[in-house]
Amino acid sequence: MLKFHLITLFEEACDAYLSASIIGRARKDKKISIKYQNPRDFVAGKEGSYKKVDERPYGGGPGMVMQALPIIKAVQKALKGLVDPTSNVGSTRPYMGEKKGKKAVIVWFKPGAKQFTNKDADALAKYSDVVLVCGRYEGIDERAKKILKTLAPVKEFAVGEAVYTGGEVPALAIVDAVTRRLPGVLGKDASVEERRIASSAVYTRPETISYKGKNYKVPKVLQTGHHANIDKWREKR
Predict the structure, then answer these.
(1) Are residues 151 and 216 in the same domain?
(2) Does one domain contain both 96 and 209?
(3) How far is residue 62's CA from residue 123's CA, in Å, rounded to a whole number?
(4) What whole-number distance in Å separates Cα of residue 44 and Cα of residue 52?
(5) Domain co-membership, 134 together with 214
(6) What is the pLDDT of residue 198?
């Protein structure tokens, strides 16, 4: 079972999507598991009090920056059992996952980084634990990433060319893209579009739709049942 660990301040925003449809079914069928770590849980303070995880940036600039230590501690908790508990954060080789036959990876979101692709989704599907660090505000103290690299491999991705309010939307996209590629999640391997001949144009019943006096029909070739001709049509599309 592939385990996704989301490091986020907004579990409720993520879980609504990850509990629905195909992803929700994959969780119930134990194809994947979703776990959350909230950086606020790793900040000292009385229970019920507001726990601050951001500070003003050194050197000036707009907005606030997420502090490094709450992020680091949240990732450590997610990787519990894969990180040597006797090693200090920042030591040279605290990662034990490979020795246990498990592979963990940390995903760090950064505008301008390598665009996430289906090939990357296939690569992530081979890990046992995928930790997705969801930043907020103006970003995360860069020292967090430097230290996290001593815990497990860190891969940097951008999901789309837009800049988002936080890392939750890219994280959900990656969970979705990776999960649907796991055996048994979609029922048939052929359901993964890029693994078959597919057209961007798809049709279903009825054969003819009438709208404002005009008829819109399904292409004849799709009604023939001639698979070779249908594949050629899809390739052209």
Answers:
(1) no
(2) no
(3) 36
(4) 9
(5) no
(6) 61
Check residue 221 and report its DSSP letter: G
**CA-CA distance, 72 to 148, in Å (whole number)?**
7
For residues 217 and 207, the answer to whether their CB atoms sit within 8 Å is yes
Computed on alpha carbons and rounded to an integer, the radius of gyration of the chain in Å comes to: 22
Q: Are residues 118 and 170 in the same domain?
A: yes
Residue 31 tokens, joined: 């194809």
CA distance 127 to 97: 10
Q: How many Å apart are CA 175 and CA 73, to the nearest integer?
A: 22
Pull the structure tokens for residue 4. 């996704």
Reduced to 3 states (helix: H, G, I; strand: E, B; else coil), residue 155 is strand
Same domain assignment for residues 54 and 165: yes
> What's the farthest any 2 CA atoms get from each other in the chain?
75
pLDDT tens per residue, range 54-92: 999 999 888 899 999 999 999 999 999 886 655 555 444
The reply to whether 217 and 168 lie within a common domain is no
For residue 171, give its domain range: 2-190
**For residue 10, what are the contacts with CB-CB under 8 A and spacing of at least 6?**
134, 166, 168
Same domain for 98 and 214, yes or no, is no
Degrees to nearest 5, angle at CA 217 with 215 and 219: 155
Q: How many domains does the chain have?
A: 2
Tokens 């789309």 locate to 160
Distance CA 151, CA 138 (A): 24
Residues of the chain with pLDDT under 70: 48, 83-101, 188-199
The structure's pTM equals 0.85
Q: Can you give the CATH number for the domain in which 62 is found? A: 3.40.1280.10
Using alpha carbons, list the distances in angstroms from residue 50 to 35, 45, 68, 153, 165: 22, 8, 18, 32, 21
